[in-house]
């Protein structure tokens, strides 16, 4: 199905993904992104190194970087933008997600509503 990619990466996120994959050596395919239950707002994003492409995952290739999206997270991440932000005290992947309905004060968790079937048709899933 043609359409927009499930998720997009900023230049900073793509550069950081490529750096992490290169540092991991030949074992890494890309980064795996998902969501898990937890935190005061209900869910949090997960990011980990991916050594393989698991069944049902969606591969997003953007700006030369590869990100695999956990199949359980696809409906929550559709239309999101992954960024990498640095400050004096931290450096982390962040997400601008149109499906977020709330976030906690600490910034560690979010409430996310799954995308509708109508909106889903606009993306390459």
From TrEMBL:
Residues 7-108 form the Core domain. One of its GO terms (cellular component) is cytosol. Gene3D superfamilies: HesB-like domain. Pfam families: Fe-S_biosyn. It comes from the Bacteria. One of its GO terms (molecular function) is 2 iron, 2 sulfur cluster binding. InterPro entries: ATAP, ATAP_core_dom, Fe-S_cluster_asmbl/transfer, HesB-like_dom_sf. GO terms for biological process: iron-sulfur cluster assembly. Belongs to the HesB/IscA family. This is Iron-sulfur cluster assembly protein.
């Amino acid at each position: 199905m043609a359409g927009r990619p499930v998720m997009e990466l900023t230049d900073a996120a793509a550069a950081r993904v490529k750096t992490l994959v290169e540092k991991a050596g030949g074992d890494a395919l890309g980064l795996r992104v998902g969501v898990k239950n937890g935190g005061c707002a209900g869910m949090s994003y997960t990011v980990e190194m991916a050594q393989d492409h698991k069944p049902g995952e969606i591969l997003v290739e953007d700006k030369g970087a590869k990100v695999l999206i956990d199949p359980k997270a696809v409906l929550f991440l559709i239309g999101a933008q992954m960024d990498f932000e640095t400050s004096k005290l931290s450096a982390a992947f962040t997400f601008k997600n149109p499906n977020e309905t709330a976030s906690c004060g600490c910034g560690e968790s979010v409430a996310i509503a799954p995308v509708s079937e109508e909106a889903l048709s606009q993306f390459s899933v």
